[in-house]
Amino acid sequence: QVQLVATGGGVVQPGGSLKLSCGASGFTFSSYGMGWFRQAPGKEREIVAAIDSSGFSFFHQASVRGRFTISRDNAKNTVFLQMNSLKPEDTALYSCAVGSVAAVTTSSYGYRYWGQGTQVTVSS
């Protein structure tokens, strides 16, 4: 049974930082690409970042490029999202997902399983 547990969310002031973690189990973590998605109230879910199975190839959405960094530790079955210089528009529920293939996948259609998410709120 695939399980994805995202942690690390919270309330932070604009300009602050958070590091999200997603612990995975129930599948061969090192064989699949992973992604972070977010959904704000009243908006569509959007991809934030994605990484391939090896951790050497990745994608970051334009609005977070230079501020967010995705990484993974295959020995610990965990994918991370380091978020710096946070803005109020980054406020959303952040979820991790398992890709269907090893490569970087930027479409939500390419993901098989989703975690429950962790809330990030950026507010002064």
Give a quick summary of the entry.
The protein is an all-beta fold.
Number of helices: 0
Number of strands: 11
Helix content: under 10%
Major beta sheet summary: 7 strands, mixed
Mean of the pLDDT scores? 97
Rg, Cα atoms, Å: 13 Å
Q: Tell me what portion of residues adopts beta-strand conformation.
A: over 45%
- Show unreliable segments: none
Order of SSEs: EEEEEEEEEEE
Describe what you observe in this structure:
The structure is a single chain. The chain is mainly beta and 124 residues long. The chain has strands at residues 3-7, 10-12, 18-25, 34-39, 46-51, 58-60, 68-73, 78-83, 92-99, 111-114, 118-122. The relative contact order is 0.32.
List the helices and strands and how they pair.
Blueprint: E1 3-7, E2 10-12, E3 18-25, E4 34-39, E5 46-51, E6 58-60, E7 68-73, E8 78-83, E9 92-99, E10 111-114, E11 118-122
Parallel strand pairs: 2-11
Antiparallel strand pairs: 1-3, 3-8, 4-5, 4-9, 5-6, 7-8, 9-10, 9-11
